[in-house]
Design a protein that fits this description.
Layout: E1 7-11, H1 16-27, E2 31-36, E3 47-50, H2 56-65, E4 71-74, H3 90-118, E5 121-126, H4 130-133, H5 139-159, E6 164-171, H6 177-184, H7 189-199, H8 208-219, E7 230-233
Parallel strand pairs: 1-2, 1-4, 2-3, 4-5, 5-6, 6-7
The chain binds 1,4-dihydronicotinamide adenine dinucleotide.
The site of 1,4-dihydronicotinamide adenine dinucleotide has 28 residues, from α1 and α6.
């Protein structure tokens, strides 16, 4: 019960890593407020807030639903893999940065007043191993993940005097609807899956629960000396 008595906001709680993190946070005793544009996948026991994470109204409703805010995990994200760097539309670029980067900042500052009033809190963001190694045909997404690393470190430094810790997880390829959509956009989806799977030292994709374990650790008081850190959970992708 590492999150007993804590109220945690999780964006993207309706699928994949966000959904697994919400389930794990519940089993660790938290009250979980799950934000997603899709109701279907939000787990039983989570207080749902439906809406787009980039809308002020969604942010306001989630904050108003919280009795207190001990933790925030900004997990909602979008990708547009399979697009060459010179074929990304300007609108597509902006939308990826709006959802992945600007919303991370927006939710972080929305949680701050409550965290400050309580004497602290924990924010967990989601980067990617691609932020460090780069990749192909996904420039806007990868650049957005690099920006999340910079934002995480900057916020950690700036908010440490408030007792607010800010950390990121950097997952490898995790078997979620997002990853499967990305693979299906490849010219040869089976070859793309095979290449990606074997790119990990452990020769497999990660499971959403394996990232949720890292998210919950960072949200918990066990991580009291973690701030500004990026925890790589990538099956040895960067080691390989
Ligand atoms: P997913 O697509 O399975 O789940 C994302 C959830 O976020 C969905 O429920 C979706 O409805 C919600 N969402 C997206 N945009 C939204 C918006 N504007 N407003 C409200 N809800 C919105 O994705 P997955 O794989 O679970 O990814 C979660 C995070 O992990 C993302 O930030 C992703 O970039 C990151 N990540 C995923 C990796 C993977 O291999 N699956 C690898 C590295 C990072």
């Amino acid at each position: 019960m590492r999150l007993e008595g804590k109220t945690i906001l999780i964006t993207g709680a309706g699928s994949g890593i966000g959904q697994a993190s919400a389930v794990k946070a519940l089993t660790e005793g938290a009250r979980v407020i799950g934000i997603d544009q899709n109701r279907d996948g939000i787990p039983e026991g989570v207080d749902p807030i439906l809406g787009d994470v980039t809308d002020d109204d969604t942010v306001a409703r989630a904050v108003a639903a919280a009795d207190r805010i001990d933790g925030l995990a900004t997990i909602a994200g979008i990708s547009a893999s399979g697009v060459a760097i010179d074929e990304i539309g300007s609108d597509q670029w902006d939308r990826i940065f709006e959802v992945n980067v600007k919303a991370t900042w927006r939710w972080m500052i929305a949680a701050l007043p409550a965290m400050r009033a309580q004497g602290g809190g924990s924010v967990v963001t989601v980067a990617s191993q691609l932020a460090f190694g780069g990749g192909r045909l996904n420039a806007a997404y990868i650049a957005s993940k690099g920006a999340i690393v910079s934002l995480t470190k900057t916020a950690a430094f700036e908010l440490a005097p408030d007792g607010v810790r800010v950390n990121a997880v950097a997952p490898g390829a995790i078997d979620t609807p997002m990853m499967n959509r990305s693979m299906s956009r490849a010219k040869d989806p089976e070859a793309a899956r095979e290449y990606s799977r074997n790119r990990h030292a452990l020769k497999r994709f990660g499971r959403a629960e394996e990232i949720a374990n890292g998210v919950v650790y960072l949200l918990s008081d066990e991580a009291s000396f973690n701030t500004g850190s990026v925890i790589t959970i990538d099956g040895g992708w960067r080691a390989a």
